[in-house]
Give the backbone structure.
Amino acid sequence: MTQLRSTRGVSGGAADFETVSGSRGGLQATWLLFEYGAVDRSGVDLPAPKGRPDRLGGLARTAPIGVPGLSEPEAVRHYVRLSQRNTAIDLGVFPLGSCTMKHNPRLNERMARLDGFADIHPLQPVSTVQGALALMQELSRWLTSLTGMPAVALSPKAGAHGELCGMLAIRQALIARGEGETRRRVLVPSAAHGTNPATAAACGFIVDEVPGTEDGRVDVEAFKAKLGPDVAAVMLTNPNTCGLFERDVKAIADLIHEAGGYFYCDGANYNAIVGRVRPGDLGVDAMHINLHKTFSTPHGGGGPGAGPTVLSERLAPFAPVPYVVADGEGFKLVEHVEGQEFGRMVAFHGQMGMFVRALAYMMSHGADGLRQVAEDAVLNANYVLARLKDAFDAPFAKYGPCMHEALLSDKELRAHGLETVDLAKALIDEGFHPMTVYFPLVVHGAMLIEPTETESKTELDRFCDVMLALEARAEAGEVEFFKTSPRLAPVRRLDETRAARQPKLRWKAEEAAMKQAAE
Ligand SMILES: *Cc1c(COP(=O)(O)O)cnc(C)c1O
């Protein structure tokens, strides 16, 4: 019974009584696999292999390694129970700004599971994977057409990885010009996503921050003042992380080019302009595209992403290998280019499953459908902004509409002794994943709400109604209510800093035994 009352039972829930089992209705208590498995148990029942040759040169394991065994139903239940403690875009509105948590059409999944895409190996002879290579080339064609850029490197495996690809290509181009040592400074706006300065620094550049203006854009005068013969590039997000279009983007591109630098565009917010604006026309030299954001492949929770990086004429010669080419005999992978110093970003070709999903998404929408995606995403965000901007402080609303994200500050909440985190935690009890909080850093207690185009008006209204009702509770001075939220979630308010800084990643048998004995 002691174990059943484990703290790993469901601690949340407003019910004022403890259950014997630790479960709460259909929400089952669960434990670590180590706690309910046993080393002498197994979910498989195979006869021991007979007469096998020893291929390990006498290094075969002699003692069990202590990995718990479970029956199949135990293993299945464990993971289903864990999944019930999580949230998902398939459960409800997930308005996490900058992350584009849109619905992932099931058609994509069906395509990605086709044997010819799912069951191939990167080392198979290319003659046996012609269809997969054709798909990669078709995806490249869509990406270069949509962005108006001549080349694309498909292999980067996330947005940040695509940034690395683009900035390494810029570094290679500078080295080829003989300016690898002299052009060391990269200009990054103050509102940038953390991956931008991190990428620049990882590539050996010096990060120089460009301030923003009152209305949430890059300060072009300040930017101009920072240009010089030691500037390698600017890294600009457009629409930016305040959810606003950088009106001066063309001027910024011209200025950086005149100064001999490159324009890296963070394309994570591409969903707001896909099909409407071609970044190539704005003077972009390199831009990553988060397939998992704009083109709807499942992400969050560390699932696989893909960050193909489109490159301008000037940077195309510095693209990493491999890439697909077609000749009279079919498709081939170019794995080596004489004199090309960049090399490759990944061991093989990139995230095939994401390529299939993204292309299925593009083809099912078509060019007109993709344009509508951008329009509806912007419309939805403006609807949310319009409904919330009077009850909450919306620092940029007075300067005009937003793009795909509505940005609020915690000014109203602070007036009632509350802050952004308190509202976010209360949203969890209402069944919503919180919006992005405390980002961008340029807005105090920022709340960045990105509804995406896949939410209906009914869902948006439900979300806005809850936000307004919570604001009314803040107004009424219900500080205690907020400070003790969430109450209905499987885990309540955590010391998140400590959880991040001192994660407990190991289970030690002796410690567990001692704890058990103490109980
Ligand atoms: C998501 C995001 C990134 C990084 O993309 P990942 O795929 O998470 O690595 C970079 N910049 C911005 C603005 C983003 O929103």
User: Anything to note?
Assistant: Residues 98-99, 158-160, 193, 195, 237, 241, 266, 268, 290, 305, 307 surround pyridoxal-5'-phosphate (CB under 6 Å). Residues 10 and 490 are 5 Å apart (CA to CA). The two ends are 11 Å apart (CA to CA). Residues 370-501 form a domain with the Aspartate Aminotransferase, domain 1 fold (CATH 3.90.1150.10).
